[in-house]
Design goal:
The complex is a heterodimer of chains A (114) and B (114). Chain A is mainly β and 114 residues long. Helix content of chain A is 0%, strand content 53%. Chain A contains no helices and eleven strands. Chain A has strands spanning 5-7, 10-13, 19-24, 31-38, 42-50, 53-57, 64-68, 74-78, 87-94, 104-105, 109-113. Chain A starts with a strand and ends with a strand. In chain B, the strands form two sheets. A five-stranded mixed β-sheet of chain B has the order 1-9-8-3-4, with no helix packed on it. In chain B, strands 2-7-6-5 form a four-stranded antiparallel β-sheet, with no helix packed on it. The chains are: A mainly beta (114), B mainly beta (114). At the A-B interface, β4, β5, β9 and β10 of A face β4 of B.
Amino acid sequence: KAGVTQTPRYLIKTRGQQVTLSCSPISGHRSVSWYQQTPGQGLQFLFEYFSETQRNKGNFPGRFSGRQFSNSRSEMNVSTLELGDSALYLCASSLTGVNSYEQYFGPGTRLTVT
Amino acid sequence: DAKTTQPPSMDCAEGRAANLPCNHSTISGNEYVYWYRQIHSQGPQYIIHGLKNNETNEMASLIITEDRKSSTLILPHATLRDTAVYYCIVRPPISSGSARQLTFGSGTQLTVLP
């Protein structure tokens, strides 16, 4: 099976711009979660989507948003970029079901805001 | 969420077993222990998880103490490619609705030496 894929892998943006990141989950996985990882804050949960609906949300401002399509692919958008948004953005997918809580991560998108 | 405590770093000789400890003294009865690792600049990789019994898969073994207050991840024959940060995580209860959220602490930097 192909793993979780994320595009692009690297991105450089300037303050004030917006950015869209894409994630394709493992085939058959319906849950997609997004995380932000920085050296200072570690791994922080952004939000989770399941069957095109946002199911959980972390403590991030409204500039961070996401969506999921019918094929389970997901995008996250960050508007009005700030320098502090520079981070590795990770997407993770998992199966549905009570015993299917293993999350499989993609390689991440490295976002640099200048 | 139950917190975990791990040593910040460990070294292991190539070919020897790497034993990574984790303390989770406040774990609840229905919480699982998960292990992930993250190789530099890549997404976290799921390794193994368990509730009460010891578990083994193709990557590692997980030993959980009888009182469940601590666990040990064992990589039986460490290789240079096992050099990574290893995260021990206690997963929230299924009923919380946030079981797919993963909160990573600082982890243990394992360095496998030639």
